[in-house]
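#random but structural
TW: two for the price of one
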Amino acid sequence: MPAPKEIHAERFSISLEPDLLEAFDAFRAQRGYATRSEAVRDLIREALVQRAWEQPDTEVVGTLTLVYDHDATDVSNALTNLQHHHHSAVVCTTHVHLDERDCLEVTVLRGSSAEVRRLADHLLAHKGVVHGRLVTTAARGGLPAR
């Protein structure tokens, strides 16, 4: 078993206006970060993930959540057909019956950011989809170590 990778941290300073620092400390406390450094690290990672999604060929992962009316014109079959057509990008799908009419699906997607976004857009725009959202992140290889 290989030895755990040693993590070395570099220190740097940052200057903020008092109002911005006060707002940042409120954000840090509300999110439960023990230190400013932890909060800054996560904000930097978030910016790097966003940048990765802006590059069309970057390997990304995301979850697409859809709520749809299963009584709408063949929406279940249409969504399934789209997923089968893009099977290389669909990792898995979980289907939940919310009530007699509405369904929730959460689909894990993986591929180039252009492919994943295109598929998500097609699924979100389908007739019968009431609401949905793509939550984006990057594969571990696209981010520096925590």
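TW: number two ↓
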Amino acid sequence: MIDIYTYIERGGSIVYLLMAMSVIGISIMIWKLLVLSWASLKVENISSSIASELKESSKFEIQHIQALVQLKVKQLESGLNTVKIIASISPLLGLLGTVIGILNSFDNITYQGLGDPTVFSSGISVALITTVAGLVVAIPHYIGYNYLIGTLDSLEIKLEKAVLNSIK
């Protein structure tokens, strides 16, 4: 049985790039999860700061309230585009590795012929490893991104309600 390190090594530079992207994306998702958890606990504090801004400006229109809440949520959202990009690019990098692996297989067949089946199978192996690696990176990032966006949406609704309640 081949261990994970052998697969990574056989996958080459694309797998190393995917691993680096995964570390970056997971770090961002953990950080955002902590930040959003903290913000969910501090909804009253955040809404009171927004309400005090409203009272200073004497603008109590719903559009102005929504704009201030959206600004606060937008600040909390920073970094999530990177996670989205990683989720989108990872399968494409896996596909690039697939194409490179198959190209190498055909190049090897051209130069060495089909006498030895390992000539063809090594390139196909690289193709499959990079495809799997791309999907392994993309799937959790896609799930994490959607979860965090959903959390932000519900936080935005909570903030709007809390601000409206505090200015009444």
